[in-house]
Amino acid sequence: MTGSVHRQLLVLAPVSALALSLTACASTSESKVSIGLVVPTSGVHKSIGTDMARGFDLYLDQHGGKLGGRLIDVVEADEGDRTEIGVAAVTRLIQDDEVQAVVGVVSSETALAAKDVAKNSETPLIVTGAGADGFADGSDYLWRTSSTNAGLGSALGKAVAQGTDRGSAYVIGSDDAAGHEFSDSFMISLEASGSNVAGQSYTPAGVTEEWSGLFEKVEESGADAIFAAYAGKEAEAFVKQYRESGLARSTRLYGPGFLTEGDVLSALGGAASGVRTALHYSDTMDSLMNDAFVKDYRKAYDATPTVYSVQAYDAAAALDKALGLSDDVDRNEIADSLGSVGTIVSPRGNWSFDPNHNPDQPYFLRVVRGTADGPRNMVLQEITSTGS
């Protein structure tokens, strides 16, 4: 963590200790706004949580620890890697720490389960990771700065149909909400674009370590491409085995950008070369805003920013504008003000919230190529989406 951000790490505590903590918080409530940050600080998505926390912190540091001219107290809670842990974290921040808004959440299952917690307590929840299609529904209390699973899958379906001369693709994904939403939207778009699905297989989420049998099915199907919907450690293992299987010589690999993002790409190195993904950001995007963001991020953390960093950075930017529009800092006024923030100026390019409170943004087809700085996700072209 860098300089000016005041952060607390929320942990379970005895009632007496918690009461003392809340009393201490109350004494400063008039001068500070409490924002809850729920990201994985443990489990398989810990590195994603680190990137999100860094993105949010960087924006605060660049603005003197303030949003909308008000000092911010960040209260962090561990989302963990199970839905019940993440939902409990969101609930504690809202009920016990009485934060004015909650930011974060990586898991689609956690986002879907936590939406009622936010709505029932009338607390703004700004999701900076989960792409669950059913999360944002236009409620004043539900917002998203990342992307939708349908948006990414749909955009990539068109790109694959064009990139394989309208051939066929074999679909492989994790057997969970995100895996099926990515895959379903991809297949609908692929077929609508004149191509066809050669086959589909789903693997137990979070625990799959071996794909050789599925690679044999891909070869037997005669598919021109593979669509793979994985993230984190599973993405890393899948791409390595794809490369070792020899399929890379004949069958191009596509997937949502998380397949080669952040620590996954660093771990894969040259094994990821040629993999094509769709996402709304790459650290190689050529703009003055992104150049400055990458420079500041590297200076602060000695690391390269990821899409996860940008999504949390933009959540801070949205709150900055919303708090600037709010006469008071109660939850309802912040929620109302989020509807009036307009355009968010971002390293990914300018965007705004759509009527459902998802980002209205373009997606980009990227390819992993070796550079002097190691493998990078290079932008090939902008691609459109029918998903929302």
Protein described:
There is one protein chain. With 388 residues, this protein is an alpha/beta fold. The chain contains 12 helices and 16 strands. The strands form 3 sheets. Strands 1, 2, 3, 4, 5, 6 and 7 form a 7-stranded mixed beta sheet that branches. A 7-stranded mixed beta sheet has the order 9-8-10-11-12-15-16, with helices on both faces. Strand 8, helix 6 and strand 9 form a beta-alpha-beta unit. Helix 3 runs parallel beside helix 4. The longest helix has 19 residues. The radius of gyration is 21 Å and the shape is globular.
Provide tags for this entry:
seven-stranded mixed β-sheet; alpha/beta; 16 strands; 41% helix; 388 residues
Give the gist of this structure.
By secondary structure, the chain is α/β, with parallel strands linked by helices.
Question: Can you lay out the helices and strands and say which pair or pack?
Answer:
Layout: E1 6-9, H1 15-28, E2 32-39, H2 46-62, E3 66-67, E4 70-78, H3 83-95, E5 101-104, H4 108-121, E6 125-127, E7 142-144, H5 149-163, E8 168-174, H6 177-192, E9 196-203, H7 212-221, E10 225-229, H8 232-245, E11 252-256, H9 263-268, E12 276-279, H10 288-301, H11 307-325, H12 331-338, E13 352-353, E14 359-360, E15 363-371, E16 374-383
Parallel strand pairs: 1-4, 2-4, 2-5, 5-6, 6-7, 8-9, 8-10, 10-11, 11-12
Antiparallel strand pairs: 3-4, 12-15, 13-14, 15-16
Helix pairs in contact: 2-11, 3-4, 5-6, 11-12
Q: Largest beta sheet, briefly?
A: 7 strands, mixed
How many beta-strand segments? 16
Low-confidence stretches: 10-29
Q: Report helical residue fraction.
A: 40-55%
The SS-based structural class is alpha/beta
Radius of gyration: 21 Å
- Mean pLDDT rating: 91
Instruction: Please identify the oligomeric state.
Output: single chain
